[in-house]
Queue: 2 jobs
Job 1
Amino acid sequence: MSAPTVEIHDVRKRFGRTTALQGVTFDVAAGITGLLGPNGAGKTTLLRMMATVLAPDDGRLRLLSWDPQAADERLAIRRRLGYMPQEPGFHRSFTAFEFVDYVAILKEMTERRARHDEVRRVLGLVGLEGVSGRKIKALSGGMRRRVALAQSLLGDPDLLVLDEPTAGLDPEQRLRFRELVSDRTADRTVILSTHQTEDVAALCQRVIVMLDGQVLFEGTPRELTQVADRRVWLADDRAAGARLSWRTADGAHRNIGEAPSDADLVAPTLEDGYLLLVGDRAFAEEAA
Amino acid sequence: MAASLRTTIDEARASALPSLTSMPRGSVVLALARIEARQMLRHPAFLFTVAFGLLLIRGAVGMGVGDDPMRNLIWLIGGLAIGSLIGGVITANVAALRARRDHVLELFGSLPSPPEARTAGALAGLVLGLGSASLVIGAIAWIALERIDDTAAEADLFLAVQYVLSVLALGAIGVAVARWIPTVLGGPLVVIAHVFTGVIWIVPWIAPTDSGIGVAWHLIYLLAVIAAFSAAAFLRDRRTIARWIVTASMFALAVVAAVQQTPPGGY
């Protein structure tokens, strides 16, 4: 792995009685890193820290080699950061162009002509050039998410933090998103939190799985897929050793779990690996 | 209700890491001001109150104001003035409230410009938008009064200046109220409380020179109100000792000027 651009060491965060993060440690280098985990795993809390809007209670965080706790370094980070929150708000009375333009000003892009060119560029990247003059309150949910994505791309940031960017997008737009993110040059860092394992499999060089405020897995998508090696098989019915089982379109049952020796094994997917990993931990906790 | 509470909690969490201590760039404030000015002038609340002011004046003076087009113009401008004074409070309030109401504080918290940039943008937009509009209305009113033979003597430049400063003062109150009482009802409540608590009669916003008002003190009063409420808005962004001192000093100056401007026997 090349030099890390995001360094997280023993980061902890509590909200009242709830522990959101309990000693999270990992490094991220340039490229696309996917963050997977069930709801409540602590992904959004971690992303808010990477977006410099939330401070850890304890631990060390360095973004693009700067410390976000120091005010002047935080400013340096924010000038190179693009952030798409999980629930992005919008100025509903603004048009898509006006809103992205407003964010561009707050990103200190004050030269009007250059700023407007940049706004048009990012709206074009997300395929909204045709509706840029339409008020945000008149746009569909998917279009609004693309507006949120567009503002995060302003100024081609070195660090792009995206919290569930593909939620609510139609399949064509998801593919377009993949194309857009993968086109970014290799020296940029993209952190992508998602529930869509297909997006991680298609895009990410690294994947981190979180559960209960801890890192459960860190590696490549291939390594995560290998967790399910020899643990996925087809059968006529739900198998006894299966943790999960569902009937596929051709009538066979796809089982995930401890396969019997004579099982009709099939190639696992990243989703299988993720489900087994998270399921294994949940199963162990249940047993304990 | 639950969603609203959750959003409030989220925003409180999002603001846990304080923004930078630096003041916003002038170029950022100016660019924001252009947008805010446009938004204020075309905001339905502003357009509605201006239209309502016109209708109110028209209703108050009746249909038979005479055939003198210049006199009709004066009534028209009076309606515009009342509408823009009320509309100014409400739209400035709505503009300063927008980020919280639209739940964009988390996103804005990740951007390099501090929250003071948005407050300054709203205040500068107030000057650029409503200030310019009121300047035009005030100038037209003054010219119109001067051109009518029997009102030429009443043409009072002081009235026009007071009107412009009053629009800015009420707008600054709208911004400060939005920063401290973040509810969409803040603007209308200020207007209602202002009229029905009698504050409006204690220190008038606009009074003719021949009312005996201390002209210089009244202008100082209006400027002090603008400065005091602007400072109060910035104080909400960051509570520093310097900001407390400036805010308190400006409020004190406004009180002194309010007392000093009053004629010996009252109005």
Job 2
Amino acid sequence: MPNELDQQNRAAFARGDADVWRAFIERQVPRLYGLFLRNWPNRSLAEELVQRTVFDAVRGRSSYDPAKGGPEDWMLAIARNNIRLEVRKRTGRPSPNGDVSRYFEAIDTRPLPDELLEREETADMVRLALSRLESKEQAVLEAKYIQEFPAEEIARQMGTTGKAVHSLLYRARISLRRELERLASLKEKE
Amino acid sequence: MKPENDNSPRDDSAAMLDENISRLLKAASDSTSPSRRFTESLIDGALIELEEAQVKEKDETHRAAGSDWLEKTLGWAAMVAAACSAGVAVIASIFLKMTFLLQSVVVLTMLFNWLTYLGEFIR
């Protein structure tokens, strides 16, 4: 298989060779991300689970036995275990009820439930709210939260200063929140 | 005046808003792969953790080797002490059974031997 590390690389992996690990994690991240996304359509959760899986692998490196197989299968087993843990965590959790507006009202005081983020209607509402913002606000939110650029990089791309980007981000967050609350209350009235 | 490093509820609410907006925008995104920046920062963090784990493992190996040496030394010392105690016990029991004259001869012989040894050592 083209993605399997050869025997020599497996031994280097077990020893903790930094270059082998770097290449390995780089190959595994999209694979794991896709796996988690297939279970829950929640990108922030997928990122969290990818991160947890990679760190579990690093911490449990001594349990990897090259004679038993490739590190890909070993890491996949860790990922499946994290899926099982997440399923178990959700079992006892109450699912969010239909009233979305109360979650948006408390957007700055408690984390939004994962189940709410996984609803198609939430994604539609966010897209609609985003489309109602000024183009500059849309651009800055996308650069900051989707592409995850630092403020300096955004400032360079937009031809402005870091301070101006922070100020624009602040306004964009407030505008988005206001739009989300408005859309949610409209939906509630329906 | 606002104190330095003020960890006020306002900071907490700004951080929570930031976190929730990030999660909402990701939920609305069509991307099927994580951002390059996420992957890079994950790799950097994992490699730092890997290096720290290796340093820790090395330290533990050194510590284990050190304690191994100490264990061996203490073992030998205990063995020597046990052998000496047994020797002293045997000599003492024989000594106590001797007549006074013989005891005096033994003590004087030992004293003479030690003085000779000391004299040789000083010369």
